[in-house]
Amino acid sequence: xxxxxxxxxxxxxxxxxxxxxxxxxxxxxxxxxxxxxxxxxxxxxxxxxxxxxxxxxxxxxxxxxxxxxxxxxxxxxxxxxxxxxxxxxxxxxxxxxxxxxxxxxxxxxxxxxxxxxxxxxxxxxxxxxxxxxxxxxxxxxxxxxxxxxxxxxxxxxxxxxxxxxxxxxxxxxxxxxxxxxx
Length: 182
Fold this sequence. Notes:
Layout: H1 2-11, E1 15-21, E2 27-32, H2 41-57, E3 64-68, H3 72-83, E4 87-90, E5 103-104, E6 112-120, H4 124-135, E7 139-148, H5 153-159, E8 164-169, H6 170-181
Parallel strand pairs: 3-4, 3-6, 6-7, 7-8
Antiparallel strand pairs: 1-2, 4-5
């Protein structure tokens, strides 16, 4: 499944070269446009299956799945459907109207949550989401990411006491892209 996912990332043209400013504020000569991939139902099914199988392999016990808006929402939704576990969506900031919630979905004290993300660079976005969940009394049992850019996310996330499980490393993507283009 991993090879199929890597091929899809390359074939969908998710790796773009040029000058980009990332969410982390870092500048980069490449961008992983995973949004192209996560609008593809076949890719979402593969991602959800891979996360579910890896979580089972690791004996991770969780009650709910969560994803920060926007990129992780389709991934978390696909995983919720695959596992039949309730979904939580974490907003970037609290709603300024209605209920003023920052988390959509029902969260209770003691809920064990599997958090998903599309791409990590330094891990800042997903760490913010983890803290929001924990402030509501949840326990984040693991963080899964589709692509880790290998620029400090793993170390930063683990320094905060969480574990990051990447489905694909950017080095694996570049290696596969090189093989496919030769």
